[in-house]
Amino acid sequence: MKKINTIIFDLGAVILNIDYKRTIDEFKKLGIKNAEYLYSKKQQSKLFDKIETGKITKEYFLNKLKEKTTNSSLDEVKNAWNALLLDLPEKRVKMLKELKKRYKLFLLSNTNIIHIEAFKKKIGKKKYNEFYNLFNKVYYSHEINVRKPSKDAFNIIIKQNKLTINRVLFIDDSPQHISSAKKIGINTFHIDGEKDITDLIVDIIQ
């Protein structure tokens, strides 16, 4: 591996703790059928693809989800959707602060405006801004209108920041995202969920 000078991080399950099962369970409570096939880590319907690529508004998305429930309110649907968001461990923020001294850092996340607004509210505006500013630039799928595993998601970062592709490391918890990055020459590391990124980072970057 040529000496790494840039690291692209995924957000959910790498930096921010998330639990898809919580949202799936909440969907089921609202009467949404086949919730695990509608939205999960491995697959999701086109409705979720559209909100994550900014093709539909949050209002349209929530109303479409509401139609799948048994007479739930929009707030109940929104809360169920946000149930997967957990905590932002301080040790991971500290890790990013240390890495920032030596590497260019980028964030590339398949996400949506509803989750980002909830994330900001959950940790507070000040803490969110501090976190956001740890990265040279943040790339949310709903803002760049493309989501992983599309190669375009990676190429946007490479081209906009004039990065040398074989000096870039991408860290993600999704095998299909890792595979896509590898195909265009990016160094990768797959987080499988058994160990914390803070326990692995020293070995990863060496």
**Largest sheet, order of strands side by side?**
3-2-1-4-5
Could you tell me the mean pLDDT? 95
Number of strands: 5
Q: What radius of gyration results from the CA coordinates?
A: 17 Å
Helix content, binned percent: 40-55%
Describe this structure in words.
By secondary structure, the chain is an alpha/beta fold. 50% of the residues lie in helices and 11% in strands. It contains twelve helices and five strands. The protein has helices at 20-29, 35-38, 46-52, 58-67, 74-82, 90-100, 113-123, 125-132, 141-144, 151-160, 175-183, 197-205; strands at residues 6-9, 104-109, 137-140, 168-172, 187-190. It has a five-stranded parallel beta sheet with strand order 3-2-1-4-5, with helices on both faces.
Task: Describe this protein with a few key phrases.
206 residues, globular, single chain, alpha/beta, 11% strand, 5-stranded parallel sheet
Quick rundown:
By secondary structure, this protein is of the alpha/beta class. Helix content is 50%, strand content 11%. The mean pLDDT is 95.
